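In practice, a research group might receive sequence data for several interacting partners and want a quick structural hypothesis before committing to experiments. The following worked case mirrors that situation: the sequences arrive first, and a predicted assembly follows.
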Amino acid sequence: MSIEIRDVNKRFGDFVAVDNMNLSIGEGELTALLGPSGSGKTTLLRIIAGLEQQDSGRIHFYGEDTTDVHVSDRGVGFVFQHYALFRHMTVFENVAFGLTVKPRKERPSKEEIRERVMKVLKLVQLDWTAKRYPSQLSGGQRQRIALARALVIEPKVLLLDEPFGALDTKVRTELRRWLRRLHDEIHVTSVFVTHDQEEALEVSDRVVIMNQGRLEQQGTPEDIYDHPANAFVFDFLGNVNQFRAQVQQGQARVEGHALTQGSWPKDRNGEGLAYVRPYEVDVLKQPEGDDLLPATVELISIIGPTVRLELTAPGSEHLVHAEVPKSRFRPLGIQQGDQVWLRLNNSRVFLAGDVLPPVGS
Amino acid sequence: MAFAIPIRKRVLPGFGLSLGISLFFVSLVLLLPVTGLVMQTADMGWGRFWQVVTDPRVVASYKVTLTAALIASLFNGVFGLLMAWILVRYDFWGKRLLDGLVDLPFALPTAVAGIALSALYAQSGWYGGFFEFFGVQVAYTPVGIMVAMAFTSVPFVVRTVQPVLEDLPLEDEEAASTLGASGSQIFRRIVLPAIWPAWVTGMALAFTRSLGEFGAIIFIAGNMPYVSEVTSLMIFVRLQEYDYAAASAIAAVILLASLTLLLSINIWQARFLRRLHGR
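A structural hypothesis for the assembly, expressed as C-alpha cells:
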C-alpha cells in the first residue's frame, strides 16, 4: 500500500470535516475520492499533501510515517482546481520551478532541467507553449501545464483537487479520458477529488465514497455501482426513484404489487424504500402481468436517442423518472396525460432503519 | 490616430460628457498652475534660470532632499510592506484600528505632524532623549528630515501594496510549497514578483511626495544652510524675498523630477501588467 491513512480526524470549529478516517491506497492506482460538497474529501486530500494539519491520526507513504514531514519535503504533486500557475512566469519557468528550488547539491544542471521540463511538456502534449505565459492558454491547457509542473518533480503520489472542476463539459470529458490514458502510461499513485460520480466512475481504478467526513464505501467503479452498500451510495451514484415498500416474509411489495426482480433483506420484515434507477423502470401501455404499477405520464422529453418520462405513481411521493430508448418508445404511442403501467426491473429495497445513512457516530 | 476611440455603440452612455468634464478639471487644477509656473520662469531667460537653480545653497538642498527622500522611501518600502503584510495575512485584535491608523499621516495637517515630531525628537523629548543616549541627534539634522518624510509618506506604500497582496491567491504559495520551495523561496520567487510593481510604485509615490514635503519638515529640520535645508524651503525663502521667478525656477526643477519619475514608473508598470494579463 502506498498511502495509509490511520484514524485521521479534522475539525474546523464545530464542523467535523474528517471523522476517524481509515483508508489504504494501492500503489500505482488512480483513486477517486467522491462525495457531495462538505463531505471532507478535499480536506482529506489536503491532509495527505500536508497542506492541512490533522487534529489526530497518522499518514504513511510507502510505510514511512510522513505525518510530521513538512509539505515541501513530502514529495507530493498537487494539482489545484484553479490551476494555481505562477502568472509572472512562462510555462517553461512554471514547470521548471520544482527543480530550480531544490537545494544546490540536489539541483540538476541547466541542461538537465531543460531536458526534463521539455520531456513532461511533451508528455502533456504542450511543448510548443514553453515560451508562453499562462494567461495566453485555455483552461484545459493550463490544467495540463499544472499537471506537468506537478509531475516534473517525480512525486511519490499525485494529488488532484477537483482538477476538471473549472472547465466546461466538453473539455472536462476530453481531459479526464486523457488523464486516464496518461495514468496508464506513467502509473504514479494518484488520488483525485471529485463530486461528479460520472467522472469518478469513468476515470478511476478505485472509488472511495465519502459523506459527512466518513467513508461510506470503497471499491472498483463497477462494484460500487452494482452493489451500493447503502442508500446514500445508491442515491449519490445517479438519479434514482424511491417507492414506499413493505417487506413481508421474504417478499417485497410496492402498493401491494409484488416485486419480482431486485434485492431486499430476506430475513427481516418492515417498511422501507425501494430504489430504482430510471433506466430500470419499464413503461407499458397495457397491464401485462400483476407486478405492474399504474402511473400517469406528466412530461415527455426526447433527448437524442433516449426518451425521458416524468410520471406520477402511487407509492412515490416524488415524480417518477423513467428512461426508455426512443426506438422502443415510439411504437407504444404514449401521449402526455396517458395512463400507463410501470414494471420495476432490478429494484433495491432498504428497510426503514437502514434507509438513511446513519448520522453522527 | 491620436485618439483611437472605437466607433461602436457603447453600453454605458455619457462617455463624451464624462471625459470632457474630467479633462476640463485636469486642465483647470493641474495643467493651468503648471503652465503658470513655467510662464513665471519664462521671463528670466536661460542664463538667469541656470544661475538660480545651480546656486550652491540650492544644490546642497537638492542633495539633502534627494538623499533624505531616498532613504525615507526605502525605509518605508520595508516598513510599509511589513505593515501591508500583517494587515492582509493575519487576523488579530485591533486590526481595524491599525488599518485606520495607517492613513493618519494623510489626515493629519503636515504642520501638526512636524510640531509633534520635533517635540518628540528634540533632546528634551521622549524619543530624542533615547537617541541622545546613543549619541544620535535626530531633530535639527538631516536625520530629522528623513523621519518627517518617512512619517508623511508611509501610507503610499501600504495602500498600494495591500490590495495586490489581497489578490494574491494563497493557492500559488501552496503550489510552490508542494513543489518543494522553502518559505524564503516562496517569498522571493512568488510573492515578491507579484507585488513588485505595486511596491515600486508605492515607493516612488512616497519618494515624490517626500521631494515636495514642507510643513512636516521645517519644524524638525533645523534649516541650517548647506546642511539641513530642503528644496521646498528654498522655494519658500525665495518667495519671502519676493523673487517669484527664482521660486518658480526651483519649483520647476522639483516638478520635472517628480513628473519624470512618475511617468517612467507608469510606463514600466504598464509593460509588466501587459505580460501578466497576456495583452
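Before designing any experiment, note the following. Residues 103 and 278 of chain B are 34 Å apart (CA to CA). The mean pLDDT of chain B is 87.
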